Amino acid sequence: MHTVMNVFVKILLKPLASIYGFCVTLRNALFDIGALKSRSFNVPIICVGNATVGGTGKTPHTEYIVSVLSKKYRVATLSRGYKRKSKGFILATPATTAAEIGDEPMQIYRKFPNVIVSCCEKRVVGIKRLLALPEPPQVIVLDDAYQHRYVKAGMNILLCDYNRPIYKDKLLPLGRLREGWKSAIHRATHVIVTKCPDNLTPLDRRVVMTSLDMYPYQSLYYSRVSYGKPMRVTGEVESRGFDEWLERIYQSGASLLVVTGIAQPKPFIRHIRKNFPDRYKLLAFADHHKYNDVDLDKITKALVELPNGPKYIITTEKDAVKLSEMVLPSWIDSLYYVPIVVNFINSGKDSLSEAVLDYVAKNN
pLDDT band for position 5 (50/70/90)? Predict the structure, then answer.
């Protein structure tokens, strides 16, 4: 019955995907022939984005690029600030909240307080405002702007999830693609296959590279994520790594509540299960979820339902940004988050960091 239902849904969605695909293809064609204008600016612009809806690891990779550039240049990030309450152009300040600029820009600002973090729905307007600052940025990183073609970036970095190959995906709403995967690939200067397994073989890489059908001048990288040391939302950092911390509290007889509000929580859950196979409970919210007092009550209730003994809460860094701005109950001291770290696999001398620095140096 379930299979029949899936087939029926696909039949219904296929015409909608075809209409959507026609509209997106027409829009891209209008940009390609110049009927719709892409604006260039006198500053190096790096665009980081994806061809699918959510879950490719965009924010950690943006943070990686920012960390590389901010050591030498005055960097600004510009995003639309998904699901923020404010409108128009806004700069992050010490008084800014995640509700005003969005959870992901807020996460970047907390990690890089010396970086100019900004939001604007219209990227052209946002760039103009940034360049009008008393100390304008020397390089701008556009966060999640791959389909926003009104700005012509000098470096287009496309992220693709290894576990959800874009060449096997379908257009919205039948699949997760925002546009045809070939047009997305061929518009990129650099492609990163993210969330790769630790045991990625040369043959695996060859299969992906062949399937992506890239041009010879395009650069391809493979990355995986690892987890940093757990941190309390109150500020303390654990001395142990994430796996060691999980193993220690599990051996102590503790139980664990996992709270997530991200697009793809399954990899995070799988990683936790390796060292915490039972005595845990998952409380999953939608991506970019805005927490409220009702949600805090749900967390409190889920904690009570865990087995007696020590109890811990683990969440993602993006969720911790929003939760930390609330007045939390007594379980605040048991609330931890774990940052994500990007590692590139066998990048060698042609690393992304060198490519980014080389581009900015030549165009600054």
Answer: low
Q: Is 357 helix (H, G, I), strand (E, B) or coil?
A: helix
Give the pLDDT confidence of 136-154 residue by residue, as tens digits: 999 999 999 999 999 999 9
Residue position matching structure tokens 């209008």: 30
Distances (CA, A) of 87 to 59, 116, 122, 280: 21, 18, 10, 40
Residue 138 DSSP label: S
Name the pairing type of β-strands 155-161 and 90-91: unpaired
- Predicted TM-score (pTM) of this structure: 0.93
Bridge-based pairing state of the strands 255-260 and 311-316: parallel
With vertex at residue 148, the alpha carbon angle to CA 290 and CA 194, rounded to the nearest 5 degrees, is 70
Amino acid identity of residue 21, one-letter, is G
Given a contact cutoff of 8 angstroms between Cβ atoms, the answer to whether 143 and 115 are in contact is: no
Query: What is the rounded average pLDDT for all residues in the chain?
Result: 94
Mean local confidence (pLDDT), 248-271: 94
3-class state of residue 22 by DSSP: helix
Beta-ladder partners of 161? 194
For the chain, how many residues are written? 364
104: CB partners within 8 A, 6+ apart: 58, 59, 79, 82, 143, 318
**Which residue bears the tokens 């299960």?**
273
Compute the distance between CA of residue 96 and CA of residue 351 in angstroms, rounded to an integer: 35
